[in-house]
Design goal:
This protein is α/β, with parallel strands linked by helices. The chain contains 18 helices and 29 strands.
Length: 566
């Protein structure tokens, strides 16, 4: 549906002519007071032109007392991390009421560079939902890993004024900002006055003050109420995150009240089709927040109006005359049970998705290993004395910096399944070198075999965790044959896999098939003894050297607090 001329909108709003669409007999959630108000909603083109009155319309949707709330806005995500294309993501989450999503394509950008931005901006112009793009600010995120590409300020400025672009995506090079790194300063200056998204885990005090002084205004990395409270008190909008791995909502929602809701919004960051099928998307976050004691008006305000205001989207977030007609009809307010979705004045159905122009994927055949790897390539030499060990924290991407005395055989450090310590390697896959980083990780629960993934934030080298070096090597080599993805190997045999041939990050299959394959993968991982609910996304965050405290890249183990290789 397109924007109609102003005189037509006025005529339909005053009732001088029938509205294009009328939602009849709804109960509107008033985001000002929290009251439920009876009345019709009149829509002209993509714009609401009347509420709380009786309207005639050329097309009538019978609400029959259902509750109308504004469309939900996911304020930060990476479509690639949903493992599906933007077109499948659109089809997957829009029926859950997500009418606007703000994506950062830096996962694909770290593999393909400018080609990723071109693809996402083109896709964003063609999907049914309003998919907005924040341009990837840190490609690569650090100099402590091998990335597939590099984006300069000049590369980003080219897309700055595109209508689907909001601003600059999560600025995760916190030391670069605080210490005045010239490349960081150039990007910040180029986007001064526009939205700049933050990424500042555990940042407090004067360091936070310095970071905010650069013009950064939002953050999705707060993991405690105390951290979030300081950030909102200093003017940030905190994006409460609940994804497939990072689950911060329960820790932060005690702060979310009707009074504070203008300073909080929701985001998923990374949520895959299996979680969406089982739990939902932003509708799940709203439902969970209300179950945790948040008043419904605060939850729905944060999911719509507060989110829109934080990102400068001044045309949406309320059901009111003159606002964009993004409307969700609910069967139940507290349970956030979505029954119908209207996106820019159009009822969301299969025909709407079928009418889109779908563009061809890019980044096929992106896995480039100089040669097949063997068990010896996975071996970590050393005496095993007080070896650094990455300690997983379920539900978080922050890790512990542990040390342990490890068994050694023939000069090679061994895994120790009895203490839940496995081997982990990161294999460079962009064809620039033959680097392999080697280390140890605690928390997967593996008793045998190996898991491998070409999704490895942010540079997306191949990350493999396992007990046996031969199984680890077989897993890495298998991913080159599939163009990337996830794989489970036991006794040299592939037990289950999910090919992700688009940049080694996304499937070219429908989201329903991806969800089904993820079920099989999880079961196969459990067969190795894995105790994690979401082992592959947890694995994907081990090579992320901008999140404390200990990580691993293709260069080796990284002490993130010191930003130094061990």
């Amino acid at each position: 549906m397109t924007t109609r001329p102003i005189p037509t909108r006025i005529a339909q709003g005053r009732g001088g002519e029938p509205a294009d669409t009328v939602i009849r007999g709804a109960r509107l959630l008033d985001l000002v007071t929290g009251d439920l108000l009876d009345g019709d909603i009149a829509i002209c083109g993509d714009t609401i032109v009347g509420t709380l009155d009786h309207y005639e319309g050329r097309h009538v949707i019978e609400a029959r007392g259902r509750i109308a709330v504004p469309g939900f806005i996911d304020t930060h995500l990476h479509v690639e991390s949903s493992l599906i294309t933007p077109f499948e993501f659109d089809r997957c989450v829009l029926p859950h009421g997500v009418t606007t999503a703000i994506c950062d394509p830096h996962e694909m950008a770290n593999v393909l560079g400018r080609a990723a931005l071109e693809y996402f901006v083109a896709a964003a112009s063609r999907v049914v939902m309003d998919l907005r793009v924040n341009l990837s600010s840190c490609v690569p995120s650090t100099a402590l890993e091998t990335s597939g590409a590099c984006l300069s300020a000049a590369d980003l400025v080219e897309w700055r004024d595109h209508p689907q672009v909001i601003g600059l995506a999560e600025f995760m090079n916190v030391p670069g900002v605080i210490n005045g790194d010239p490349g960081c300063m150039e990007k910040l200056a180029a986007f001064a006055g526009r939205h700049i998204d933050g990424h500042a885990p555990l940042l407090r005090g004067r360091a936070l003050n310095a970071y905010l002084s650069a013009g950064i205004s939002t953050d999705h990395e707060a993991t405690t109420a105390a951290e979030a409270l300081e950030k909102v008190r200093k003017g940030m909008t905190v994006l409460i995150r609940e994804g497939s791995v990072c689950k911060d909502l329960r820790a932060l929602v005690p702060l979310l009240t009707p009074a504070t809701s203008p300073f909080f919004a929701f985001c998923t960051d990374d949520r895959n089709p299996l979680e969406i099928a089982h739990e939902g998307h932003l509708d799940y976050l709203i439902r969970l927040a209300i179950a945790e004691g948040v008043e419904p008006v605060a939850a729905y305000r944060s999911a719509s109006l507060s989110a829109a205001n934080a990102f400068g989207l001044r045309d949406r977030g309320m059901i009111a005359p003159g606002w964009r007609a993004d409307i969700v009809l609910l069967d139940d307010l507290r349970e956030c049970r979505v029954s119908d979705v209207i996106a820019a004045g159009r009822v969301v159905d299969d025909a709407l998705f079928a009418a889109r122009e779908v563009i061809a994927p890019v980044g096929l055949d992106s896995i480039s290993l100089p040669a097949p790897v063997g068990a010896a390539d996975m071996a970590q030499a050393g005496d095993g004395v007080q070896a650094p060990v990455i300690g997983l924290i379920p539900g978080q991407i922050i890790t512990e910096f542990l040390r342990a005395d490890m068994p050694v055989r023939d000069g090679v450090v061994q895994a120790d399944p009895a203490r839940d310590i496995a081997r982990v390697c990161v294999v460079a896959r962009h064809g620039h070198n033959d680097n392999i980083g080697r280390g140890l990780v605690k928390g997967f629960g593996l008793k045998s075999g190996a898991l491998a993934s070409s999704v490895g934030h942010d540079s997306h080298n191949i990350c493999v965790v396992g007990i046996d070096g031969a199984d680890m090597a077989a897993a890495v080599n298998h991913l080159e044959t599939t163009g990337g993805g996830f794989v489970v190997v036991r006794d040299g045999r592939v037990v289950a896999d999910l090919p992700l041939p688009i940049a080694g990050l996304m499937s070219d299959a429908p989201f329903e098939q991806v969800a089904s394959r993820l079920e099989v993968l999880r079961a196969a991982a459990r067969g190795l003894g894995c105790t994690l609910d979401e082992p592959f996304l947890q694995l994907a965050f081990l090579p992320l050297p901008v999140i404390p405290h200990l990580k691993i890249t293709d260069f080796g183990m990284v002490d993130v607090d010191r930003m130094a290789l061990l």
